Structure formats: C-alpha cells, structure tokens
Amino acid sequence: MRVFVTGGTGLIGSAVVAELLGHGHTVLALARSDASALAAKTAGAEPLRGSLTDLDILRAGAAQADGVIHLAFANDFSSPEALAKAVAEESAALATLGEELVGSDRPFVTASGTPSAPGRASTEADPLPTDGPVGGRGRAVMAVLGLASRGVRSTAVRLPRTVHNQGTGGFAGLLTDIARRSGVSGYPGDGAQRWPAVHALDTAVLFRLALESAPAGSSWHAVADEGDKVRDIAAVIGRRLGLPVQSVPSETYGPLGPIFASDQPSSSTHTRQALSWEPKHPRLLEDLENIQP
C-alpha cells in the first residue's frame, strides 16, 4: 500500500514510517522543510514538500495514495491563541484530506487524544470532548469518523497524554522541559491525577494495524500504561535532573493547565482484543530513566 503520511518525521511519525516500510508499504511523507525532506528520504520515504496549511499539496498527496495517516500538529501551547490557531489549521487539513478520499473506500487514519471519564478509565466507546482548550480537535476527528458514511474507511487512533521514546515526548516531556527551565520538577495539585502513556514504537504498530484492517468509523486506544500518578512521573524527572520535586500552580502550564491537573486514566482492552495489539516496549517510568541530566 502507498501511504501518505503527515507529520512523518516527528517522534511518532518517524516510528510509524519505519513500521510501514518494515511491513512492505511505501510512504509519501509531507515535509515542511529541507531538513524534514532529507529526514524522510533517509528513512526510506518519498518526501512531498509542503506544510499542513498547503491544502492543494494535501489534496495531491492523498490523491496519489492508497491510504492516509495524519499525525501532523503544530504543538504550540504557548498561549490560548496559538493553540486555537494550531487546532484550526489541523481541522482544515483533516477536512481537505477527507474530501479527497470520499467514495474511494481508502483508509484514513487520524490521531486524537484519549478522553477522560470521571471516576474510571476511559474506553474506546467514550466520546471525545468537543469543548475546552482542544475541543476543536475532537470535533474535527468526529467529522473524519463521519466520513465512514461517505465511502471512506476512516478511523481514529487515540493517543494518551504521553507518547514517549528514550525519555522524551508528550506531557512527560513537557514536564521535563519546564523542570529544566524552572529548576523545579513540578506537578499540578497533589499529583495524584493519573496520565496514560505508551511507547512510540508500540503506537506505530497500532497505526499500521488500523490502516490495514480497522473498520470504518472505529476508534482505538494506543494505551500501554493505564495511568501513572503525575507526582511519580515528576519524581523520576527530578531524580534524573537532580532537581527538587514539588507541587506548582496549574497556571505554570499555560492553556494546558486544566488538562494537566485532571485525572484521566484510559483503557485499551478493546483495542488489544480486536486488533491483536500488544505493547512490548518500556513503560513510561522505566523509559524516563533515559533522561540525561
């Protein structure tokens, strides 16, 4: 299968590209810079120059592919305005890719986040949030899943709060970055809230399985760790960096503050059973031991 991948040179995307190539697929990778194009080509993919805002390029990429995996996101959490812009750009890109695939029965795999469910671990049956700081992403992904009724084998892989590899990535990576800048390994509130996690290499396997066999309109959870306490995550970060570990105001985390402070464990029981997906790589707390002082 020839697969058009957006975000193919990031932490998750590079793992997905390698997984696809390792299983006989070919990859056309969106590349927004010369450096990204070189990275894609070095990995074995064919680069297609353009960014997530180049809608004509996205149409061209989807038109020449047997399937699409969307992973690109601006990841600018510096302010509510920046986050809203990133969500709007992604929503337009998803709509464009989806329209190109209508009536083709080709697979369209997109990424979203795992939802929260008060008092329990969320499951694949729980709805995505459509309000709050990232509500726009939920609405855009629901629109993609709705394309199942228009001849697109659309599916969503829901990612936990931390997708990691060698101690970097996701919300835990943000905690590490903030700790380096502030001199404190902090956590919001009492730190008892739980964040789910998964290794990037395990995530890549699930994206491939979804591309190859997931039914239209389905959602899957890329969750290996159902939920580690944030204070336990911060404790490892603090020990590795030689920094004090303590509670800090949720405002420390900008527009993501309310999300950082919430308890949001998540389950992948259905995903494991239905797609025969089984995480095999290090869990988060073990992987954080790779953080360099």
Automatic annotation (TrEMBL):
Extent of Polar residues compositional bias: 263-274
Gene3D superfamilies assigned: NAD(P)-binding Rossmann-like Domain
InterPro entries given in the database record: Epimerase_deHydtase (IPR001509), NAD(P)-bd_dom_sf (IPR036291), NAD(P)-dependent_oxidoreduct (IPR051783)
Annotated ranges, domain NAD-dependent epimerase/dehydratase: 3-214
Disordered as annotated region, ranges: 105-135, 260-293
Coiled-coil features, chain-numbered ranges: none
Pfam families per UniProt: Epimerase
Alphabetized PANTHER family for the sequence: NAD(P)-BINDING DOMAIN-CONTAINING PROTEIN-RELATED (PTHR48079:SF6), PROTEIN YEEZ (PTHR48079)
Protein name, UniProt field: SDR family oxidoreductase
